[in-house]
Amino acid sequence: MVVADPYRRWRRAVYYAGVAVVCLLTAAVLVLLLSCLVGMLPGVGSGRSG
C-alpha cells in the first residue's frame, strides 16, 4: 500500500535547512575561535599588543 505523503517534501526541506543551519553555526563558531586564538598570539593580528 503506497500512500502519497504530502509532508515528505516539507520534512526533507526542513531536514536540509536544519543541516545547513548547523553547518553555518559550526563554521561561525570555528571562525570566532580561530580569530580569538590568532588575536591572543603575540605579534599576530591587528597589531594590538596587550
Overview of the structural elements:
The structure is a single chain. It contains one helix and no strands. The protein is rod-shaped. It has one helix spanning 8-40. The longest helix is centred in the middle third of the chain and has 33 residues, at 8-40. It is mostly helical and 50 residues long.
- Alpha plus pi helix count: 1
Low-confidence stretches: none
Report the β-strand fraction as a percent range.
under 5%
Structural class: mainly alpha
**Overall geometric form:** rod-shaped
Radius of gyration: 21 Å
Count of DSSP E strands?
Answer: 0
What quaternary form is this? single chain
Task: Give the secondary structure arrangement, pairings included.
Blueprint lengths: L7 H33 L10
Task: List descriptors.
50 residues, mainly alpha
Question: Quick recap of the structure?
Answer:
The chain is an all-alpha fold.
